[in-house]
Every structure is written in C-alpha cells, then in structure tokens.
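Task: sequence design from structure.
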C-alpha cells in the first residue's frame, strides 16, 4: 500500500504541544500502529488522561495479550496531514482489553505531502453514486478512502461531465450503511483507458464521519502484513 513520503521529522518535547498533538490524534480516530519487537498491533487512541500522564488504546483483533507491563511500544500514526511517532511504555491491560500506557516525553512529527488514504481492494467493491445538478446520476467505484475524501474510477462519458471545483451530492455505501454527503471534485485524471476521480467530503455529520472512520480502520487492518490469511471485511 503506497504512502506519500514525509518531510523531515521534527522532535516536540514541550508537554503542552505533545498533549495537543495526541489530542488531535484521539479526536481524529485515525489508526495507530503499535510495534513491539517483531509484533505489530493496529489500534485507536481512545483518550488521554492528562492527570495521570496516561494514554488509553482500543483493543485490536486478537488483543494485547502478548504484551507485559513495562514493554516499550513504538507508535506511529497519521493525523490531519501529519505523521506522528513516539515511544510509549505499557502500564496495564484493562479488563475490556484496552491498553493503558504512559504519555511520551517527546513526539516526532512530519507533514506529509497529501492526506493519507487507504486503498480499497478489488475484492471489496465499494460503490457510490454522484448526483450532478440537472444531470444524470454518475456511478463510481471507490478505489481509496480517508476521513477527508476518496478516489474513484469512472467511465469516460461520466468523467467528461466533471471538473475540479464542482460540488455534487453523493450517496455512499460502507459496511452495509448508506449515507449521503456533498462532495467537491478535486481532480479528474485519465489513466490509460480509465478515468480517476479525486473527491473531498465537503460536510460529514458526526455519525457519517464515524462510519467512514470505522471503514478506514477495517481497511488498514486488512492491509497489515499477517502470518495467516487476511480477515474478510464485513460488507453486505
């Protein structure tokens, strides 16, 4: 899964700035890769406990059972166009499977050249329909997805109707849930005999944003290298 190369990493060691960056990560609900030796876990940062300098991570599939107290994890994530990475030490495993670790003394961050998107495998067809004002509905196949936008493939005759900056209504089906949201066309490109569309979500309701967040997490988990077969994504 290709990703945009980051710019130079910068170290942040101010407590206030660290808390700000980690709060953004928790609020964005972006996947966090936690590495310990040769093992890797994909999780979410649920919240910060600034009174006790602790981080609380969601339980991934299979849980954190192999981790022990004082194990040092290397965390890495992307949020709001930035890459984040930091060490964090395990404090405890909760009864619900979540992980409590210590807030780092420093965080590295780097701005990426574009918003990170997760590729959608061909075995998981995600469809959307766009509705130009006064025109016919345009059906597209989603090829990559983020909480900010998406990439899609479409037919030539449909691509000719779209121009960057045009605002459309869209209907999206993710994990058996349909939602409607306005989108702005950001790019239309020809690739050999196919056409690709880049779209940005103009306004998502809190519920629809959570739906997209869950889908992104499922896709990230699908693409993680695994020793066993990849899990099936839950689509209707």
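Answer:
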């Amino acid at each position: 899964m290709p990703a945009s190369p980051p710019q130079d990493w910068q170290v942040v060691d101010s407590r206030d700035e660290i808390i700000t960056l980690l709060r953004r990560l928790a609020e964005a609900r972006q996947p966090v890769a936690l590495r310990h030796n040769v093992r890797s876990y994909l999780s979410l940062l649920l919240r910060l406990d600034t009174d006790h300098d602790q981080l609380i991570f969601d339980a991934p599939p299979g849980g954190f059972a192999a981790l022990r107290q004082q194990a040092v994890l290397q965390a890495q994530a992307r949020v709001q166009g930035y890459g984040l990475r930091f060490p964090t030490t395990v404090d405890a495993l909760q009864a619900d499977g979540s992980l409590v670790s210590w807030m780092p003394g420093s965080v590295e961050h780097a701005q990426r050249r574009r918003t990170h998107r997760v590729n959608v495998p061909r075995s998981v067809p995600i469809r959307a329909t766009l509705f130009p004002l006064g025109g016919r509905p345009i059906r597209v196949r989603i090829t990559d997805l983020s909480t900010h936008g998406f990439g899609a493939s479409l037919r030539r005759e449909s691509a000719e109707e779209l121009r960057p900056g045009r605002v459309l209504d869209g209907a999206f089906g993710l994990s058996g849930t349909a939602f409607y949201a306005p989108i702005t066309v950001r790019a239309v490109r020809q690739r050999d005999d196919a056409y690709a569309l880049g779209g940005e979500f103009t306004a998502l309701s809190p519920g629809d944003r959570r739906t997209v967040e869950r889908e992104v997490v499922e896709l990230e988990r699908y693409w993680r290298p695994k020793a066993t077969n990849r899990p099936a994504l839950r689509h209707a």
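Residues 175 and 234 are 6 Å apart (CA to CA).
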